[in-house]
Amino acid sequence: MSMTTIAPEQVNSIVWNQHSDPFEILGSHPIEQNGQNVWAVRAYLPNASEAWVVLPEQRQQYPMHAVHHPHFFECTIETAELANYQLRIKEGEHERVTYDPYAFRSPRLTDFDLHLFSEGNHHRIYEKLGAHVAEVGGVKGVYFAVWAPNARNVSVLGDFNLWDGRKHQMRRGSTGIWELFIPELDVGTRYKYEIKNFAGHIYEKSDPYGFQQEPRPKTASIVTDLDAYTWNDEEWLEKRRHTDPLTQPVSVYEVHLGSWLHAASAEPPKLPNGETEPVVVVSELKPGARFLTYRELADRLIPYVKDLGYTHVELLPIAEHPFDGSWGYQVTGYYAPTSRFGSAEDFMYFVDQCHKNDIGVIVDWVPGHFPKDGHGLAFFDGSHLYEHADPRKGEHKEWGTLVFNYSRHEVRNFLVANALFWFDKYHIDGVRVDAVASMLYNDYCREPGEWLPNQYGGRENLEAADFLRQVNHIIFSYFPGALSIAEESTSWPMVSWPTYTGGLGFNLKWNMGWMHDMLDYFSMDPWFRQFHQNNITFSMWYNHSENFMLALSHDEVVHGKSNIIGKMPGDRWQKFANVRCLFSYMFAHPGKKTMFMSMEFAQWSEWNVWADLDWQLLQHESHQQLKKFFQELNHLYRSEPALYTQDFAEPGFEWIDCSDNRHSVVSFIRRDKDSEDFVVVVCNFTPQPHSHYRIGVPEHGFYTELFNSDARQYGGSNMGNLGGKWTDRWSLHSRPYSLDLCLPPLGVLILKLDKIKTAEALEG
Known about the structure:
Blueprint: H1 8-15, E1 27-33, E2 36-44, E3 50-55, E4 60-63, E5 65-66, E6 72-77, E7 86-91, E8 94-99, H2 111-118, E9 130-136, E10 139-147, E11 153-158, E12 171-172, E13 177-183, E14 190-196, E15 202-205, E16 221-222, H3 234-241, E17 251-255, H4 257-260, E18 262-263, E19 290-291, H5 294-308, E20 312-315, E21 319-320, E22 333-337, H6 344-356, E23 360-365, E24 370-371, H7 391-394, E25 395-396, E26 401-402, H8 409-426, E27 430-433, H9 436-440, H10 462-478, E28 483-486, E29 508-510, H11 512-523, H12 533-537, H13 539-542, E30 548-552, H14 564-567, H15 572-588, E31 592-596, H16 621-639, E32 653-660, E33 665-671, E34 678-684, E35 690-697, E36 702-708, E37 724-726, E38 737-743, E39 747-753, H17 755-763
Parallel strand pairs: 17-20, 17-31, 20-23, 23-27, 27-28, 28-29, 29-30, 30-31
Antiparallel strand pairs: 1-2, 2-6, 3-4, 3-7, 5-6, 7-8, 9-10, 10-13, 11-14, 12-13, 14-15, 14-16, 18-19, 21-22, 24-26, 25-26, 32-33, 33-34, 34-39, 35-38, 36-37, 36-39
Helix pairs in contact: 5-6, 8-10, 15-16
């Protein structure tokens, strides 16, 4: 029967892509016609010349007729039930048979999902929004859902419809979520959303919840199944769940995957002793050099980090970003590990292998701002959806980025769920939250008149603070034993205090004050250090106000700042000695540790995101020796609980003498939480050695020299104490005993009471 059952204006609303619920018109509809109950099937098929409705089970097909428009087809079918019908479509000389997406009416999101999302509390909204392989009515396909409340229309684009927004128009729900199930699509499908605002402007957007994107410069999202990988780290995760990381050694190797090493054909250089450095290649990029994949990085980076003794790797942002030069800090795909290095499963393999080798994985997370790229979150549905409309709140002009609107529940939900997503789907062990200060202050990098005060007239961003409390509370609720680290450079109180005390809920905060004091101190001529003893000691005045991580990061080796060794004064020997002295003091000082790649072998040049590290330096003995120094420093740190179990408790640290500025020497004790063990640390920050330098100690006995940063194997002058010293019954520094020590130049000594040797001597 060819009689039309629909008005022309209804057809035009579909043809002109102006209908918010195409299911009201398209698909199958029971109607009454000539006193009979029949089914009307309607389809809008751009480019089609003919079409039929196919009933496979009945082995029948019904011709459709164009009504009101040459590509809008309809037919009526006299049958009691109409299920699992298909459309046979002729386009030019080609024919195809497919299921009608508008035959699948049931929404995937429940009312409860919508309620939780609207109030900002749907912790796993990524399982509902985005693109998900699903089976509906026995038909496999992909379900698409996207939040775009201010859009007039939204369509799914892809290779499957020749990127034609007329073909797969989505249905709008009551909360502004658009959805559509498209049958017969599968993993690997490339897609975007075509979004029209009420002015008729069209925006082609990547999926905010997409699990994978095309390699740059392309920007389409890719349908991905995140549940196909078989994990092998159950033991690691269970152990983490029952472990407090604040009482454990945390030594972090910060790495940018794209510039640690590229794939190249060069052979590793030979070392003077004839051995081959396992991962070293010449850093000059060969023509056609490419990034290593996640799996290749697992084979090369993980053994390197394990050999050096680090407990964790911290990855500069690996969420998808369009521009290499942003280092990953301008994210467009918050739910997609960057495709530069491979697939989602490849990254899962990398994390799995880290855990297999007892290495935790920390990921840089950027919830503070996002770029203005047209395919990203900016002006997403033709309105300021994810960002503030007022640039005084919504833009970082210095960075050219936009600020998330933390007061909007759905935006906050996007970010909270994103933090959980990386723990849930990729088994990461921690996040380091970038640029927290930029989130907490409305006037951050803004001139007077360029920012708006909060409701109380202050400069604090109260919504951002509430968001941070929410995300940290939820992270630790789901993943006890995880790390949440704030890069926060101001005096905002209680950053690393629990949320139930009014804190922001992080469990660690980068100690930016310590970093600046140390770099200022070590960059000056040692003669002048006697006048700046406060640089060394000041951190302990405020050390217990937060749970601090001591970090010498990528930010300190770029933009004309020089690399760490280049900051050091003196001749070549003194530069290396200063580096050893700095890091020895860092590892002995209370707080967890982070250092950037290349510092471990003293790269002279600044970090260059476009090239490899200067691995060829390891052909030289002094650079090999420094790498050996870091191996043994990490080993010592991990083997001595006194150096980490009480980083944040006052009994864990006590000065022996911090006032000897004339010699630029400090000495202190670190104590273990669960035993009577302690270590004694003595630091000489000048090239002048000191013989017969006496310090007070609390117990009598033989103090073994566990570590000497001036040892010959590290390239030092090998001045020391012949393995250790016995105490004298000579009280000093308010302690009953003392040690007469030889302090090496620019050297750090770490000593420990040998209770067995002491007891044997006393018995003898």
